[in-house]
Amino acid sequence: MREKLEIREGSPSDSAAIEKLYPDAFPDEDLLPLVRELLQEPPIVLSLVGIIDRSRVGHVIFTTCGVARGTDKVALLGPLAVARAWQRQGIGSAIVHAGLQRLENAGVTQVYVLGDPAYYGRLGFVPEAGVEPPYPLPAEWRGAWQRISLSSAEPPLRGKLSLPKPWLQPSLWAP
Ligand SMILES: CC(C)(COP(=O)(O)OP(=O)(O)OC[C@H]1O[C@@H](n2cnc3c(N)ncnc32)[C@H](O)[C@@H]1OP(=O)(O)O)[C@@H](O)C(=O)NCCC(=O)NCCS
Q1: Residue 114 confidence class, pLDDT cut points 50, 70, 90
Q2: pTM for the whole structure
């Protein structure tokens, strides 16, 4: 990447840029209602903004959650968006890595994601079978449910992911 990318925690001053970023990155999907709701949920939500030359070019949210009947602190990655003009320049990967580092420092042991394995596999995510998403996934999406371990959970975690209300919408977990 030629220009310098700054990554920092999001703040209310980023709202207008975030409102433009998601429709630009996801022209066929309206993720803004979810993003708005999640941003109302600090401190369980970590919002990171990628900035180049004072433009917000990328954004990611991590929601800290748990696994039913367990004590491990875990998180869900999503949504992740990079402005179309800035895609494929390493920004998405850099923002995800920065978030994983912060979560590891905060004692989070596992991070889950529902996303394209071709993309998240490159970042170190592997298919997850022990911890289930809040709603059953259609067969064609099963490989999209993935995890990265930030520290070893012994024994491996099992159970259903418990998430805050903004994520408890079946439509977010189906095509
Ligand atoms: C997906 C997204 C977040 C990736 O961010 P990015 O900054 O463009 O990605 P990076 O530059 O870090 O990584 C680029 C690599 O990831 C892969 N990649 C990028 N977008 C991809 C996608 N939608 N599906 C599969 N692989 C993808 C490519 O292999 C690419 O490498 P290449 O250019 O050498 O082929 C971004 O492209 C985006 O916002 N896309 C639109 C929204 C979207 O599809 N989000 C879903 C996330 S699963």
Answers
A1: very high
A2: 0.94
Pairing assessment for the beta strands 131-132 and 159-162 based on DSSP bridges: parallel
The predicted structure's pLDDT at residue 152: 78
For 39-65, the pLDDT digits (tens) are 998 889 999 999 999 999 999 999 999
Beta strands in the chain (DSSP E): 6-9, 45-52, 55-67, 73-82, 110-114, 126-127, 131-132, 145-149, 159-162
* Residue 89 token pair: 């320049």
Q: For the chain, how long is the longest CA-to-CA vector? A: 47
Whose Cα sits closest to atom 48 in ligand 1?
115
Pocket of ligand 1 (CB under 6 A): 25-26, 80-82, 87-93, 115-116, 118-119
| Best probe residue, ligand 1, of 61, 82, 122, 172 (max atoms within 8 Å of C-beta) | 82
**Ligand 1 atom showing the smallest separation from residue 116 Cα:** 48
Q: State what percent of residues in the chain have pLDDT above 90.
A: 87
